[in-house]
Amino acid sequence: MKTHPESPLFTMKQLLRATGLARASLLNYESLGLLKPRARSAAGYRLYGADEQERALTICRYRAAGLSLQAIRGLLAMPAEKQGKSLEACDLLKARLLGLSDEVERLRAQQRRLALLLTQPGLHDPATLQSKTAWVQLLREAGFSEADMQQWHADFEAENPSAHAQFLKALGLSGAEAAVIRRKAKALQTGR
Description:
Order of helices and strands: EHHEEHHHHHHH
Distance between the termini: 62 Å
Number of strands: 3
Radius of gyration: 26 Å
Number of domains: 2
Shape: elongated
């Protein structure tokens, strides 16, 4: 349903500028039936109105939230007044929100794996591995919490205890400090 049937028309270039979309994205949305030009000029150029601009902005908002084009198609197929209010729309958005938690966990696992890889001989960056402080700073910059760092040590200890011990020594930790970290890592592995 058009809400601005008499709005002025503008070109694809103007729509792209107003929405921040790339030309390829707009053409892709058109080919998928998500967004159609309102009209064509005498020369065959695509022309868009306020409704199409609003629809393009809606697509941008949904894409920024990480929704698939298939999910967006489903939402846009709903009457405009129900797009943000129906149970179906709510369920779809909740599913995406919860799905992000799974994605974040997968990314966190990748971070832990990358941090383990950085400890391998030959990959050591002397600046990063010169002290406990530098290593902790790197992990914090990567978004590791204290619990994430403890889990990382537990994973390292489980995978290769001797390499973990060598790594802690390379950071300049005393034998007592290293023993405490390794004991906590083992306890975290066993759940004690």
